[in-house]
Automatic annotation (TrEMBL):
Protein name per Swiss-Prot or TrEMBL: Interferon-related developmental regulator 1
Biased composition (Low complexity): 51-60
Lineage: Eukaryota, Fungi, Fungi incertae sedis, Chytridiomycota, Chytridiomycota incertae sedis
Domain Interferon-related developmental regulator C-terminal intervals: 359-403
Domain Interferon-related developmental regulator N-terminal: from-to ranges: 62-171, 185-314
Gene name of this polypeptide: IFRD1
Length: 414
């Protein structure tokens, strides 16, 4: 049977039987089906779905349920299309996977099929063209959407290790940073987008305790980023500046947590970064840059970004970024939190608000709670519970329908 087509569920006329005879048999089956399906239609949604006595809530729920079923079908179809021979069809399927996992939170579908889906995406990673980039984002969305169970997480980490370390060692945060530093130290040999992505990944991992460099490495790491402030590409300059802010902020935070210095110990006035004066000069220049060979919009974006970075380096003051989601506010009051937010933003895209409302992973990372829905609304837990009830009723009704068809068929043959 060709992919994407379905055979008709209507029974065909048997040889030697008139079409009208078969029509009568089908009519009997149809009536029996209606009777057996009655149990489904008699199901009442949970009381909270009709909270406030509004029938609009029920209609909204049914529409929402239909949309989710359609999204899951599209997702399954897209993963099936990854087996196609034409690269254009596989790329279209990857785009559909990204779109489905971004705009809908579907943990049940992901948990059931994560294993084979990861295998399909692993094959895409080994191909050429744009497939590896799309597959990387799809893998990230798969993990965010429910594939973060230990067995799936181990598979993803192992896959990452095969790409970075040829599978010869356990993937550790410090090893990731070391491999990315090789790229940054030879930035002029790489595409600006590669350098920018490497910088953003570096800053995301840097604040992890297992990744933090020792005291002697601070100067080397900051020197490397200071050099990148002179890059021609605006995004590279800003990403390097934000990493500097993350490093300085992290250093100041852990200095405050360190054991207090005994009163009789002489104070060490040596700055933790030996080229701090040069760094401040460069950041000041970028925050006031009026060079005419840069576009006006580029200068405005650069000034705004580097004013915040300079304030952190000089005064250890981080910007505050707020996002209003439903009745909760996401507050990011540190550079590391802002980098985390931007990472989820890049991966999830337009569905960020959906995942903030329904995805426990994002709620845990950003310390959110979406308890107490407004009257007439339902929670994702209630929705999944009702879908389970409806699914079981549908399965029972289909079994009864098949049994009735078999009975009608056997009586006709007799």
């Amino acid at each position: 049977m060709p992919l994407g087509k379905r055979e008709s569920r209507r029974p065909k006329a048997r040889r030697g039987e008139s079409e009208s005879d078969n029509e009568d048999a089908h009519s009997e089956t149809s009536h029996a089906t209606v009777d057996s399906m009655g149990s489904m239609h008699s199901l009442e949604p949970p009381p909270s779905i009709t909270r406030g006595g509004s029938s609009r809530s029920v209609r909204s729920f049914v529409d929402e349920q239909h949309a989710e079923e359609t999204a899951e079908e599209s997702l399954h179809k897209a993963f099936e299309d990854l087996a196609e021979k034409r690269s254009s069809l596989r790329e279209s399927a990857l785009h559909q996977i990204i779109r489905s996992l971004s705009t809908k939170f579907m943990p049940e579908a992901v948990e059931k099929s994560a294993g084979p889906w990861i295998e399909s995406l692993k094959r895409c990673l080994r191909r050429e063209g744009s497939e590896p980039l799309l597959a990387n984002r799809a893998l990230a969305l798969l993990w965010i959407s429910g594939g973060s169970q230990p067995e799936h997480f181990d598979d993803l980490v192992k896959l990452l290790g095969e790409g970075l370390l040829d599978g010869e060692a356990e993937v550790k945060a410090s090893e990731l940073l070391s491999s990315w530093e090789d790229v940054l130290e030879a930035a002029d040999q790489h595409d600006p987008e590669v350098v920018r992505n490497t910088l953003e990944a570096y800053g995301l991992i840097y604040a992890m305790p297992s990744a933090r460099p020792g005291h002697d490495d601070y100067n080397r790491v900051l020197d490397m980023h200071l050099e990148l402030l002179n890059a021609d590409d605006l995004d590279v300059r800003i990403a390097a500046g934000e990493n500097i802010a993350i490093i300085v902020e992290d250093r100041a935070h852990h200095a405050e947590e360190a054991r207090p210095r005994p009163s009789d110990e002489p104070e060490n006035t040596k700055p933790f970064y030996e080229s701090r004066h040069q760094l401040i000069q460069q950041l000041t220049f970028l925050s006031h840059d009026s060079t005419r060979h840069r576009a006006k919009k580029e200068r405005a974006v650069q000034k705004s970004a580097f004013r915040d970075i300079l304030q952190t380096v000089e005064s250890n003051v981080a910007p505050m970024e707020k996002i209003k989601i439903k009745h909760e506010t996401v507050e990011c009051d540190s550079w590391s939190k802002i980098r985390q937010l931007n990472a989820f933003r890049d991966i999830v895209g337009e569905g960020l608000s959906v995942h903030f409302r329904e995805n426990p992973l994002l709620q845990h990372v950003f310390h959110l709670s979406f308890d107490g829905p407004a009257p007439g609304k339902i929670t994702s837990t209630e929705r999944r519970l009702y879908q389970t009830i409806v699914g079981k009723a549908r399965t029972k009704a289909l079994k009864q329908m098949r049994g009735t068809r078999a009975a009608v068929k056997s009586s006709g043959e007799g």
